[in-house]
Design goal:
The complex is a heterodimer of chains A (526) and B (91). Chain A is α/β, with parallel strands linked by helices and 526 residues long. Chain A contains 18 helices and 13 strands. Chain A has a domain of 304 residues: Amidase signature (AS) enzymes. In chain A, helix 2 runs antiparallel to helix 3 and helix 10 crosses helix 13. The longest helix of chain A is centred in the C-terminal third of the chain and has 24 residues. Chain B is mostly helical. Helix content of chain B is 34%, strand content 4%. The longest helix of chain B has 14 residues. The chains are: A alpha/beta (526), B mainly alpha (91). At the A-B interface, helix 10, helix 11, helix 12 and helix 13 of A face helix 1, helix 2 and helix 3 of B.
């Protein structure tokens, strides 16, 4: 049975109607994971348990009792979420071999809906980075590096240079999840977003990346980076799918006291046709230094799109935008210093052979377990938290945070419904170029457009918009009001429909000849 | 100003992570320099923000025991243990 029909594949409908079975779907995804191994998107593939879950799902479909839209749908989870019985490494030597004794709440929720967990995806070590290049299992490769679109635009190298050397990065830190969704090995993936870690790789890999409002989705089981900013992120191939996944994950969790207690009602997105009542804000500070002329043009084109459709498009100002990165630098390193203190080798994770004293064992364990990026942030964080520096740096940053958050409040209060900005400064860089600068520099450069939304706790989404001159994806970002995900996603869906972002043309996928993925505008499950 | 040797030693002791080499110290210096940009912002009369959810009441559970008795699971990931204890080197 092939699922070639029409413009939009509806995998869920196909499962319900028996045109494809959960085990078939699972097997095809597992096979595709194997044939795209060079992407290095997965750290652990949970083949046995996935097939078992698929079989159980199949039983339910046979009885006509699927648990919901997600039943039988293959998904992947970033390797900083705890998954019971499956290794959770955070791409660090510190947690190599650590098998979680429990499921993160979001993982449990997916499993309770019948989703099939294919495996854990690759990331920057402990989610620190913007390239998915700094984990101990190596960098993740952007699937678009191998697309016909990119190859067509690549200048052929005359010398016998390694053909492989011009592959581009996925962005990060949720690069593995973005690559997994982009290369069709799963229908949805979980990432995390602290400074842009879901939206950035979504933009570079041409997929939808949603950062929900802080407090909407439980962080229980997500190994924390910055407790006051972390959120689980959702990566899918279309906006409707993101809404479906959001619907299954959002809501109060007694195990995470930072989740709000308001009732959350899952929603279906309306097909917006009339945007005349919409007010779109264009924050001028997001025309940041280094923004490529290509993306600037695209952003402008998008603004015009809304204008021509009747929406009110206004320039707005978020004056403290440029301090967001500095503020993040201080608050992030401070919270990291605290959060990484739990890794001492005693209860779990790597333990050094050093036995002279508890303190020397701790120090050696941490030196051996953490990479330079992590150690650097711990040291910086501790510096900013020293008694003599506390007011000057940490408290100062907290004050600047309020100013940043207030900027957004003022703009939304002035009648603007949603903000439209670029997501990244440029399309994905070649790996060899990216690693020329160190992690902190790159993060500071790449997070500039995404970070402020984390400061303010606001929902934001990357929508793939167009291909760059190099044949690589470029996305644009929408930022919405707190807890107004329905409005945010509705507008994003309208925009997605207008831009008709092209589907990636991957040799490996065609070769698999699983009609599941061919000839579809977006292989979605909703 | 450069970070003093005493502060560096103090940091290593607090963080239980070492600088390894001069590169590590360089990195810290750059991080401090970067952070110093914060002082360009006027924050007179501005309250520090701990959480974006500051206007809400944090959820508090009832003081009832709802889970536990998972000693076995908790000990499973530890390298060195004796009976129900995690073992640390003396001193």
């Amino acid at each position: 049975t092939r699922l070639k029909e029409g413009l939009r594949s509806q995998v869920s409908a196909a499962l319900k109607e028996g045109r494809v079975t959960p085990t078939e779907l699972c097997q095809r995804c597992l096979a595709l994971i194997k044939s795209t191994k060079f992407l290095n998107a997965y750290i652990t593939v949970a083949e046995e348990t996935a097939l078992k879950q698929a079989e159980e799902s199949e039983e339910r479909y046979k009885k006509g009792q699927p648990l919901g839209v997600l039943d039988g749908i293959p998904v992947a989870v970033k390797d900083n979420f705890n998954t019971a019985g499956i290794e959770t490494t955070c791409a660090s030597n510190m947690l190599r071999g650590y098998v979680s004794p429990y499921n993160a709440t979001v993982v449990q929720k997916l499993l309770d809906q019948g989703a099939v967990l294919l495996g854990k995806t690759n990331l920057d070590e402990f989610a620190m980075g913007s390239g998915s290049t700094d984990g101990v299992f190596g960098p993740v490769r952007n699937p678009w590096s191998y697309s016909r679109q990119y190859k067509e635009k690549s200048v052929p190298k005359p010398h016998s240079e390694d053909k492989e050397s011009n592959w581009v990065i996925t962005g990060g830190s949720s690069g593995g999840s973005a690559a997994a969704v982009s290369s069709f090995t799963c229908f949805a993936a979980l990432g995390s977003d602290t400074g842009g870690s879901t939206r950035n790789p979504a933009a570079h890999c041409g997929v939808v990346g949603l950062k929900p409002t802080y407090g909407l989705i439980s962080r229980h089981g997500l190994i924390p980076l910055v407790n006051s900013m972390d959120v689980p992120g959702i990566l899918t191939r279309c906006v409707d799918d993101a809404a479906v996944v959001l619907g299954s994950l959002a809501g109060h969790d007694p195990k995470d006291s930072t989740t709000i207690q308001d009732d959350f009602k899952p929603f279906e997105l309306p097909n917006l046709t009339d945007v005349s009542k919409l007010s779109v804000g264009i924050p001028k500070e997001y025309h940041a230094p280094g923004l490529s002329s290509e993306i600037l043009a695209l952003w402008s084109k998008a603004a015009d799109l809304f204008k021509n459709a009747g929406a009110k498009v206004v320039e707005v100002s978020l004056p403290h935008t440029r301090y967001s990165i500095v503020c993040y630098h201080v608050l992030c390193t401070a919270e990291v210093a605290s959060n990484m203190a739990r890794f001492d080798g005693l209860e779990y994770g790597h333990r050094s052979g050093m036995n002279e004293s508890t303190e020397s064992m701790y120090a050696a364990t941490r030196r051996e377990g953490f990479n330079e990026v992590v150690r650097g942030r711990i040291l910086s964080g501790n510096y900013f938290l020293l008694k003599q520096n506390y007011e000057k740096y940490f408290v100062k940053a907290q004050k600047v945070r309020r100013l940043i958050a207030n900027d957004f409040v003022k703009v939304f209060r002035s009648g603007v419904d949603i903000l439209l900005t670029p997501t990244t400064l440029s399309d994905a860089a070649p790996y060899l170029e990216f690693i020329q600068e160190d992690n902190r520099t790159r993060s500071a450069q790449d997070d500039i457009l995404t970070q402020a939304a984390n400061m303010a706790g606001l929902p934001a989404i990357n929508v793939p918009t167009a291909l760059s001159e190099r044949g690589l994806p470029v996305g644009l970002q929408f930022i919405g009001r707190s807890f107004q995900e329905k409005q945010l996603l509705t507008v994003a869906k309208w925009f997605e429909k207008q831009v008709q972002f092209p589907m990636i043309q991957l040799e490996e996928v065609k070769r698999q000849d699983n009609g599941v993925f061919q000839h579809q505008k977006s292989a979605s499950f909703s | 100003q450069k970070v003093s040797v005493e502060v560096l030693a103090h940091l290593e002791h607090l963080a239980l992570v070492d600088f390894r080499d001069s590169e590590g110290v360089e990195r810290l210096q750059k991080a401090i320099q970067f952070a110093d940009q914060l002082h360009e912002v006027n924050t007179d009369g501005v309250e520090p923000m701990d959480s974006v959810l500051e206007d809400r009441c944090l959820y508090l559970r009832e003081d009832d025991v709802t889970e536990g008795n998972c000693t076995k699971e908790l000990l499973e990931n530890a390298r060195e243990k004796v009976e129900e204890y995690f073992v640390a080197p003396p001193g």
